[in-house]
Design brief:
It contains 5 helices and no strands. It has helices spanning about 5-15, 20-25, 35-45, 45-50, 55-60.
Length: about 60
């Protein structure tokens, strides 16, 4: 299930500046717990998927690889 969401689009959906979101993707900054939950809700994935804590989740959401 591939989604075509731009960085700007996702940043807008969760109420972030584009640069702040880019820092998350680049590993320069880490999102707060509240932001992590918002991102997971918008992307419709479990927070464990975003944290790469459960490899079995990667198979379930392979459209995000």
């Amino acid at each position: 299930m591939a989604r075509k969401i731009t960085q700007q689009g996702l940043a807008d959906m969760v109420g972030l500046a584009l640069r702040s979101y880019q820092c998350y993707e680049q590993g320069v900054r880490e999102p707060s717990l509240d932001m992590l939950v918002k991102l997971a809700d918008v992307l419709e994935v479990p927070t464990d998927y975003l944290l790469c804590r459960d490899l079995s989740l990667l198979k379930s959401f392979d459209g995000f690889q």
